Amino acid sequence: MSSKLLFPEDFILMGFTKYPWLDLPLFFALLISYMFTLLGNMALILVSQLDSQLQSPLYFFLTDLSCLDLCFATTTNITYIGCMAQAYIFHWLGCTECVLLGVMALDRCVAVCRPLRYSVIMDHKHCRRLSGTAWLVGLANSLLQSTLTVQLPLCGNQELDHFFCELPGLIKMACVDTTINEATLAVVATFLIMGPLSMILLSYGCIAQAAFHTCSSHLLVVSLFYGPGIYIYMQPSGDSPQDLTKALTLFYCVITPMANPFIYTLRNKDVKGALRRLLRSAILSKRI
């Protein structure tokens, strides 16, 4: 039985079609959140690149995270040519963020526990290597999981009970035994979620007493991202209500990217100072 390629014209994205009264509120909520996502992440990227005082590894990784969140939110708000293209990109970005959050925790651990050697250990070359590893691991996992999903036959099934093309929803559309796909997804997701999460908890466990104020923002972002991911991916398929799964997915792919730059900015004096200097320079340049 041959597989059927999925393109937007081939099937219907259901979303919350059982609750039509949610259409208009959801439209405006998603539009506003997407605009804040663009504004917040672009501002953080801009000040990190233009301000000479924000050239440390911390802001290198924050810039990387903001770029990732911009792509993440855009992937789930703008329709791509085909459903599979969206699935590949969405899964790639999600896996990359899992690994990148772990790398950022390692950076904080080195900064607090080894401050005298921090600039040597976390030099620019090493930061780029860690960032590249996160992106490559996410890409490799996306190629594996999405390719396995593409090959599943649909047997005429055209209704995808989701907002966009995410792998668990696509697997449920198949008309054959998907045990291998579900097991592979669960095993790899466990590794990619619990591996970085364990590294984060271990890193912050070592420095919690000495510098909790430097970690609280990152821990908040971690809880917002990993909490829904653990619930959605690390349980047997079909055990959770689909509406709850959709709501949690919407939370971590829309709300989290919007919240990340504000969480980091509002609790970071350096970033707030850089924003003020950037605005002051812009105002003075217009006067001149």
From TrEMBL:
Q: Where in the cell is it found?
A: Cell membrane
Q: Which residues cross the membrane?
A: 26-47, 59-81, 87-106, 127-144, 183-207, 219-235, 247-266
| Principal cellular location given in the protein's record | membrane
Which superkingdom is the protein from?
Eukaryota
- Membrane is among the record's keywords: yes
The record ties this protein, via InterPro entries, to: GPCR_Rhodpsn (IPR000276), GPCR_Rhodpsn_7TM (IPR017452), Olfact_rcpt (IPR000725)
Q: What does this protein do?
A: Putative odorant or sperm cell receptor.
Question: What name is this protein filed under?
Answer: G-protein coupled receptors family 1 profile domain-containing protein
